[in-house]
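Lab notebook: predicted structure, single chain.

Context: the supervisor wants predicted structures on file for every construct in the current expression panel, including those that have not yet been purified. This is the next one on the list. No modifications to the sequence; it matches the entry in the shared construct table.
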Amino acid sequence: MTQRTENSDAGPSGGFLAEIKDAVTTRAALLVLGVLALQLAFITSYIGAFHHPEPSEIPIAVAAPVEQLTDRTVQQLDALPGKPLDARAAADKAAATEQIQNRDVDGALIVNPAGTTDELLVASGAGASLSQALTEVVGLVEKAQGRSLKVTDVAPADKGDARGLSSFYLVIGWCVGGYLCAAILAISAGARPANSARAVIRLGALLLYSIAAGLLGTVIAGPVLDALPGGIMPLWGLGTLVVFAVGAITLAFQGLAGVVGIGLAILLVVVLGNPSAGGAYPYPLLPPFWSAIGPALPPGAGTYAARSISYFQGNGAGGPMLVLAGWAVLGSAVTLACAVFRKGRPGAAVGSGLPDDAPSVPRFAGEGTDAR
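Prediction complete. Output recorded below exactly as produced.
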């Protein structure tokens, strides 16, 4: 007579609710809720920043043969409803062009009192949507006065750089590489750095990756696809700094919050940084909140610097480069500080199901024992 044997593969008793509790841990449920919150924040940030772009205080120079006419035109442009323009006087056309090249203004109106056609200088290399908005606003003013407008692009986007967006996409690619590389370096062995040596090694590996990513990204955007003009060396340096800054921020967040730090890095760089970067819509076209935070975050600083290097001989890139350097230094310092603070207390390997403050599980049977 055969005897019935208990199936060892049967799930835990207690019904379907017990199955759910066994399959989905509390930690996993909380992480899923965090992902949902991050997703909703992503949707809110992008739609909030892009759904209704309006020009706001676009810097524009004004030049006319007579000083009184220049001042009167400046006052007229500044008084437009909604204040779409921030006008300022320039001595002449050459001075106005220099202000554009130095990235002090985004355009210039050259008034010709001897005729009925004025000239608007724009720079599509700073973003096609910005030059189009400027042309539209000034064009309406000129039309209301019975005058026509001639538009001259003094810093045109390269023919391979559709709408001046290649700089933005290049920087976004660098940012993605930065936080993914840092995440992989951290979660491959544990959620948090176990000691200062491991933190230094991770930062060193991140630096090597940043150098390679900066060069390869520049080569692809430049010589390979012919999308961005300018020298390789300046963009390579910028790319290295962008990748390392974002990676260092990610390592710092992981040092502070464990695996949750990856989500915090995505929140900062992707959810907040990308829509405020001035890529599709430069700062004067973004809502106030996004235009305020954009220059202080890596994607915005990187995009502005990349455009400056590509189309404005590097003018205006100094400030954004300092922002990126600040993030790199801060991220590195926090990463090292977290490692020193947690010295001797290694975090549990990500995916082990253990809390972050649990000791690491040895990889080999004899690891951590005295082999005799």
